[in-house]
Predict the structure.
Amino acid sequence: MKEIIYRSTRSNAEALAPSKALLKGLAPDGGLYVPNAAPLLSDIASNIGCTSDAEVLEKLSKLPYKEVAYEVLRVFLTDYTEEELRYCVNGAYDTKFDTPEIAPLIEKDGRYYLELFHGATIAFKDMALSILPYLMTTAAKKNGVDDEIVILTATSGDTGKAALAGFADVPGTRIIVFYPKHGVSPVQEKQMVTQRGANTRVIGIEGNFDDAQNGVKAMFSDKELEKILAERGYRFSSANSINIGRLVPQVAYYVWSYVQLLAKGVIKNGDKINVTVPTGNFGNILAGYYAKKMGVPINMLVCASNENKVLFDFFATGEYDKNREFKLTSSPSMDILISSNLERLIFEAVGQDADKCAKLMKALVTDGKYELTEAEKDALSSFIGGWTDEDGTAAEIKKVYEGADYVMDTHTSVASSVARSFVNSAASLKEAGVDAALPMVVVSTASPFKFTRSVMSAIDKKYEEMEDFDLIDELSRMTGIKVPQAIEDIRTAPVLHNIVCETEKMQEEVLKFLQ
Ligand SMILES: *Cc1c(COP(=O)(O)O)cnc(C)c1O
């Protein structure tokens, strides 16, 4: 099996073993870690006694989620031992998930919804954040790190709670979460501010998600702060989607969705599929890109945006331009104008030229935009962008509920709506060489119970008058689905976190918590 090491997207500084890159989170030069070579299905093949990609897919189609995840992790995180990885996978994908399938693939209305919301916080972030604490504490042990690891996170809503749930009371760790005080749903906020665990702190900021993310990034690259914290016995790490420990576990469910289609007889081995992903920070869909690079027969990765359609414009023109009005939508986890993980794709597009990549990222900071050349744009050919507005999001929820008796959350609805338009334009896309008629997987990123108000109002305006928890009960009655434990928990849980600060005061708050 080939060793994988991780290098920065912004300089040719020393590459690190997977466990070290995972501990660091962000590279010291501000870049993101990327694998020095693409892990392939053929690397899995040699691990499980297969001789071809097709054989690997066939074999994986008979395995449970945990085993598929293990095989994928193994070829990305090559300095972890088998025993270590099995420990991590078994600890993560257990009864915290409300179904033994972990990530069910549900056929509705001609599309295949990959439900990634069966974990502790009922959103897809659980897929990676349930395993990250295991990967990280194992990495610390392997590398002789004695400092307490401080997870510093900016969240647009779902990451925060999923990270808190993953790290709460994990020995040797602390976790600090910053969220935009006025930019998350009431349920998202309640989930976070009721978090138990003496090692947790949740702080609202008077700013949007990008402000929170920029504040966190600034602290990560602040050498002075690093020194102060080292003296106190702390070191930062990141649970944000830039960490390879977030990215790699996500690759697993793309492999999984393909082999599930195979297992269900929807496709023949080797047939291609399309995938639509509701996108914000570009972490989820990037994992799909890595799965494709591994050799999973994915044709197009359809990148679905809400009204903050920076990525749609980028894929259409090759220009990334964040200079625009920031919109608050009913899919808040996609309300993002700087998609951090896109940097990894840009690095590929510029031919892995770190200096070029660093220049573009600098332009993004100074001018708020950058543009790829025609040749560089060619590297984006696996992607196509789509977007839908607030009316389109609501209409899609209603349509799929009435037509297929399936209730989706708002984020999934953005993807579902974009997937529908994509398939409807099959004829014109064919001229452009894109096959939109292939089986379509729609990545389903949150339970409708997490965004009940928007979901129910989309189905019928009469619900606008009702109280949040009455809506939740009504949704449960309508769907016959039991109210998820994550929601039950917050009905009565006391608020334990009430700090709100200005963006400029983020560092001060961190130092207060880390005495
Ligand atoms: C985080 C999130 C997204 C966006 O995922 P990215 O990896 O940031 O692109 C979409 N939907 C939900 C529900 C999320 O929590």
